[in-house]
Structures are given as structure tokens and as C-alpha cells.
Amino acid sequence: MEKFKTLKAVAAPLPLVNVDTDMIIPARFLKTIKRTGLGKSAFYAMRYDERGNERPDFILNKDAYRHSKILIAGDNFGCGSSREHAPWAMADFGLRCVIAPSFADIFYGNSFKNGILCIVLPQAEVDKLSALAGSGNTAGGEFTVDLEKLTITAPDGSVTSFTLDGTKRHNMLEGLDDIGITLKSVDAIAAFEQKQHREQPWLS
Amino acid sequence: MTQPTTLYDKLWNSHVVSVDQGGTAVLYIDLHLVHEVTSPQAFEGLRAAGRKVHAPQKTFAVPDHNVPTTADRLQVIKDPEGRLQLEMLESNCRDFGVPYVPISDIRQGIVHIIGPEQGLTQPGKTIVCGDSHTSTHGALGALAFGIGTSEVEHVLATQTLVMKKAKNMRVVVDGKLPPGVTAKDLVLAIIGKMGTGGGTGHVIEYVGEAFTNMSMEGRMTVCNMTIEGGARAGLVAPDDKTFEYLKGRPYAPKGVLWEQAVAYWKTLKSDEGAQFDKEVHLLADDLVPYVTWGTSPEDALPITAKVPDPKSFADPAKEVAAARSLDYMALTPGTPLDQIKVDKVFIGSCTNGRIEDMRAAAEVMKGRKVAKGVGVLVVPGSGLVKHQAEEEGLDQIFIDAGAEWREPGCSMCLGMNPDILKAGERCASTSNRNFEGRQGIGGRTHLVSPAMAAAAAITGHLTDVRKL
């Protein structure tokens, strides 16, 4: 996985609550056997009309926001289906960070495994950053997310701090693969299996 | 004296392989269910890294999301992408030695229906699947939750997951559900009360008379929709009803092992005085059948209510969301919910595709005819549910009424197989999600119980089944 230290990019405001993973990537696009190539279908129904033409009003279709790497979203972002195709589609589109008042649990975990940093901030701070991100056809300028310092610097120079679980931060900074780490515990797993076999023999 | 613990605490603690100082644990997984949509990339990852499946016998695969539900499905699956996923599941299972149930097998069905049906789902187990409705299996007292594909690969490779413990939440429902009011209505009422994010970061234990009296099928419906309230897992403590349900099923323990297992399962309950971080209380006695009006499962109201006015929401974000929902749903504030006409009715899914659901729908449709112009799909959750329903003559009741009786699969729950709504079509559905486009681009979903879906099929509009 790519390391994540700092990210400097335009941020797109998407102030909707309960953006579900069907909205991020509809089910008909899940019939893929790859992790890549889903970016063109990300946010499909919001992004394209019935004929497949871009909806000019959607934030990521506006020239100023086409290359956004940061999304500033509403409460309960990523709810619904567990599909990892949601962060795959977002990453393939180019998004590397989502800032929201809260995230659905499964989406939150899936995002970190794909190099997308999810930042939880109180609603008032999200609103403030959302306003600084601009609207209409004019982006507010570049934001800098610093994972080492755990800060977001807005285009106006204001700095917002955030917190993150230490393990998640470490793995993002180092670009570590979870499976490789866990396989170092192979002896502990074997010991657990032996103990379980003794105590709950019906399980194996 | 030891601190009193919750059922979730016990299930979690008994599966921790190791834990670091920050509280991140390696958690052992007893059962990994696999389907065709969220697994291809995981098997590909194993191959690329030269890894094998750690415990194939603790893994169980079945195709469900993509499979057509028409009788000709063994001969022809037209969609090339869907077919490729189905072929890959079969070849991946063969290559990695994972037990696999093909479409032609009578046991085939929705993964969350067949886990309990086969006795794979048992109290005290940790169960995962690359599907958010894995929460279903908590109805038997298992810690069960959905995972993403990276985690599917992690479990395949290590039989563990790396995660932090969630918080404890309790939903207490005292009293008895009145006639015509089902587990589905209750869970919609619960989600309506706590919101789709109300359970985020928590595991919910359901306690109280309503759940004690509830059938195993009903408990599965409630736990299934726990994820719609934001909690990754729901739990009902195992009791005699659970043991009775499991006894004799193909993968349930037998003989002495059965006795040992039951003795252990009886210890799986929250201790007196155990602490919960969050609680929600409801009374079952006053409940009526529920329907959803919007595009989030929390948009649930009694069938006796009216389409709400977005301006009635205190929270400005909710007002915006409600206005957007009503626009998508093409509904006008103030319209009585029982006057909303439907084009389609879908009875099935991992929420309501079990035998009890088929019986409830058949009871309403018996001797009646589907309203003119309404298309009705009845899709059993598994081949065994289908077989049982046919033994009881339920298929003939549906067919006589004018409904279609289909082969098992996820069907019209999620817009991935040929069963989809057309743009603008409105559906009374026993599934779990009313999201925009969930049942097909531009499709409009009203979530209801099987009895309520059957009532809508007969009248052609959302209907209070108690009045039919």
C-alpha cells in the first residue's frame, strides 16, 4: 500500500447525510474481478444523468473540483453495504481523504486498507472546513492534511487538529500490509486453535 | 469477584488471540462465509502473495447475489460479467479447497439463510462474511459481522481479523407484539427511533419479552437489519428455542459433542448488572405495522401515518435529506401512506426469505388475487425453503393469486441480477434497504413485512394488513 504522510489538494464539499455505499458505487458495477477501474463509476447516480451525461451541478463535475483528493461530507458517511468497491472507486477516482462528523464502521475500516484517510471532526468544524472549501464553480484553494502532525491546514492558513487510532496511523504512514503483520503471529494463532480444540471440541 | 460482563464481552474475550497496548486485537474467526461478489479480489490477492487458505474447513462458499431466479438459470446465465464471477467462485473454491455449494444443489441459497439452515451458524462462534447482512447470524448468539474484501483476504490467509472492540448497546423491548405486527415492523420501528447511525461503533444485544417470544426466523430478521441502524452486529442470547432450532441440522454437533456444546451455550448471556454504553427502550404492545417513505431505513413510520413534511424536521441536515428523498420517491407531504400505489411487490431476501416469511405472505394471499397491473415476485431464500414451501402447498397459493414463484437467490434486493425495478417503478419490498437505486436505477422502494407486502399485492397500494 502507498504510504500516506501529507496530502495537499483541493477539497470538495458534499454536505449530505447518510451517503450510502450504493450511492458511492451502485451494485451493477460490482461485477468486476479487479480492484481498479471503478473510478469512472464513482457516485454514478449523482454524477451522471439517465443518458450517461455528466450532471453539471454535481460538485466533482465542476472544473475546479475535478481533481479533488479530499471530500468533506455529512454525518454517517459510507453506511449500508460492506462493499469495498466503494473505497476502491473513490481511490480510483483520486480521493485520498474524507472528512466527516461520523463514518459507518465497515466503510471506515475498508478505507484505511486502501490508503484513504477518514478524519472524524465535530459537525461545527466540518461545516467550517466545508465553507472554506468553496462552492459553486470556485474552489477555496488547497488544503494540507498532515498525518504525522495530525493537522488539516485550510487555504486561509487556519489549522484544525484531529485524532486517529495509533495503529491505523502507523500503518498508513508506513504503508503496511495487515496480512503480513498478522502472519508474524502464526504461533499465537496455532496455540489459540489448540486451546479451542481442547475446550470446545465441537468447533473443529 | 469478577466484573459482570455482557454477552458481547464474552464472545469477544473468548476469541482474542492477542491484543496490543492500544487495544487492537487479533480476533479468531470460527466461520467464514464466502459469496461470488466480494471474494474474487481476495483470492487474487492470495495467489499474488503465494498464500493459501489457513482453514478451508472453517470456510463455506455459495453463490447468491448474481444468480438469476428463473427456472432456466442452470442452462443460461446471460450476463457475461455475472457469469464470470460465478465461475471464479467455483474455480477459486476448487483451487483453495474451500467447501462450495453449486447453484444446482438444493442447499443453494442466500448465504445468510443457509448458514443457520445448515447448522453452520452456532452460538458462541465468531462468523464473518463479505456482506453487511452477516449480522443475521447473531440471532443464534454468534458474534457475526460483515467485512470488506481486504478483510476477506485477511481471514482466508490467517483465520483472524485485526480489530478493536466495539461498545456495548442494548435494545430492550418489553411487552407482546400485537396480531399483524411482526419482527420486521419491530426492527423498522427500532431503526426509526435510533436512526441509521444510532448503533455506529456498537454491538447491539436485543433483550426483553418481545425477543424471548420471537421465533428464530423473527430474531434473524431483527439481527439482519441491525446494520441498518449502524451497528455491525446484533445479538440475541441463545435459549432453548435456539438449541431446538439447531438440533439435528447437518453441521450441528452430534452425540456427546452436542451435550458439551449445549452446556457451554447456556453460559452465553449477559451477567446481571453488566454495563451497556447505550440503551434504547421500546414497548411492543402499542406497535403497528411499519413502512418506509424515504430513501433511508430510518425513514420509517406506522402505516397509519402520512408522508411527512421536510419542514417538520428540526435538524436542517435531515430537512435537506427528507426533501431529497421525497423528490426521488415522487411523494407529496401529507399523503396518507396507505394510499401510495405500487407497481411491484418483492417477497424474499436475507431479511425475509425464510419459511415463516413465505407462510405469512401465503396466509394473506390465500384465496385472493393480485391487483391488476401489479407484478409480484416471491423468492424463497434457499432451495430448502423452496422445497419446504412446496411441501406445504404455498407455491400454489402464490401462483393461484397471480404471483411468480422463483428459484432462490438475492433477487430484487440489490439490483445485481436480472430482477430489477425499472426507473420510476414503485415496490413494496420485504428487503432491507430503500436507498436510491438499490433495486434498480430510479426504482422506488418501500420496506415492509411479508404480510404487508402480500397485502399491497392484493390491493395495489400500501395497505394496513390488519384491515384486509
SSE order of chain A? EHHEHEHEHEEEEEHHH
**Overall form of chain A:** globular
Number of domains of chain A: 1
Number of strands of chain A: 9
Largest interface: A-B, 57 and 81 residues
- Please tally the β strands of chain B and state the result: 18
Mean pLDDT of chain B: 97
Write down the oligomeric state: heterodimer
Tally of helical segments of chain B: 16
How are the SSEs placed, and which strands pair?
The complex is a heterodimer of chains A (204) and B (468).
Chain A: E1 6-14, H1 21-24, H2 44-47, E2 70-73, H3 85-93, E3 97-100, H4 105-112, E4 117-120, H5 123-132, E5 134-135, E6 138-139, E7 142-146, E8 151-153, E9 159-161, H6 166-174, H7 178-182, H8 186-199
Parallel strand pairs in A: 1-2, 2-3, 3-4
Antiparallel strand pairs in A: 1-7, 5-6, 7-8, 8-9
Chain B: H1 7-13, E1 16-19, E2 24-28, E3 31-34, H2 40-49, E4 59-61, H3 80-96, H4 111-118, E5 126-129, E6 143-146, H5 149-158, E7 160-164, E8 167-174, H6 183-194, E9 202-207, H7 209-212, H8 216-224, E10 233-235, H9 240-246, H10 255-265, E11 278-283, E12 290-292, E13 300-302, H11 316-329, E14 344-347, H12 349-352, H13 355-365, E15 375-378, H14 383-391, H15 394-401, E16 404-405, E17 426-429, E18 444-447, H16 450-459
Parallel strand pairs in B: 3-4, 3-5, 5-6, 8-9, 8-11, 9-10, 14-15, 14-17, 15-16, 17-18
Antiparallel strand pairs in B: 1-2, 2-7, 12-13
Helix pairs in contact in B: 2-5, 6-8, 13-15, 13-16
Structure description:
The complex is a heterodimer of chains A (204) and B (468). Chain A is of the alpha/beta class. Chain A has one domain: Aconitase, domain 4 (Alpha-Beta Barrel). In chain A, 31% of the residues lie in helices and 18% in strands. Chain A has eight helices and nine strands. In chain A, the strands form two sheets. Chain A has a seven-stranded mixed beta sheet with strand order 4-3-2-1-7-8-9. A two-stranded antiparallel ribbon of chain A has the order 5-6. The longest helix of chain A has 14 residues. The mean pLDDT of chain A is 95. In chain B, α13 runs parallel beside α16. The termini of chain B are far apart. With 468 residues, chain B is α/β, with parallel strands linked by helices. In chain B, the strands form five sheets. Chain B has a five-stranded parallel beta sheet. Chain B has a four-stranded parallel beta sheet with strand order 4-3-5-6. The radius of gyration of chain B is 21 Å and the shape is globular. In chain B, α6 links the parallel β8 and β9. Chain B contains 16 helices and 18 strands.
